[in-house]
């Protein structure tokens, strides 16, 4: 089995979040535009959350800890 580099995976998610933020708006209008913007916002949130995670291996399982804000 190939070695799995969790840190590299998290960096890829950070890069994806940045790419979504820089993604140009295609020449669409109306409902298609709204859907495109909505999907981009969701993609950014997903990628940014995973990209900000810290990780550990507990009982043989990869555990991602994702900060959700606040002063917990």
- Tell me the number of structural domains: 1
Query: What structural class do helix, strand and pairing data support?
Result: alpha+beta
N-end to C-end Cα span: 38 Å
Radius of gyration: 16 Å
Average pLDDT taken over every residue: 91
Could you name the ranges where pLDDT drops below 50 across 5 or more consecutive residues?
Answer: none
* Strand content bin: 5-15%
Topology as a string of helices (H) and strands (E): HHEE
Name the shape in a single word. elongated
Number of helices: 2
Structural write-up:
This protein is of the alpha+beta class and 72 residues long. It has one domain (6-65). It has helices spanning 6-22, 30-51, and strands spanning 54-58, 61-65. Strand 1 (54-58) and strand 2 form a beta hairpin. The chain is elongated and about 50 Å long. The mean pLDDT is 91.
Task: Give the arrangement of secondary structure elements.
Elements: H1 6-22, H2 30-51, E1 54-58, E2 61-65
Antiparallel strand pairs: 1-2
Describe the structure in brief.
With 72 residues, this protein is of the alpha+beta class.
Can you give keywords for this protein?
72 residues, alpha+beta, 2 helices, two-stranded antiparallel sheet, 2 strands
């Amino acid at each position: 089995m190939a070695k799995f580099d969790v840190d590299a995976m998290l960096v890829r998610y950070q890069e994806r979040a940045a790419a979504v933020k820089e993604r140009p708006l295609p020449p669409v209008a109306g409902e298609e535009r709204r859907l495109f913007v909505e999907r981009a916002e969701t993609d950014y949130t997903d990628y940014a959350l995973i990209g900000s995670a810290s990780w550990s291996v507990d009982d043989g399982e990869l555990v991602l800890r994702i900060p959700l804000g606040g002063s917990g």
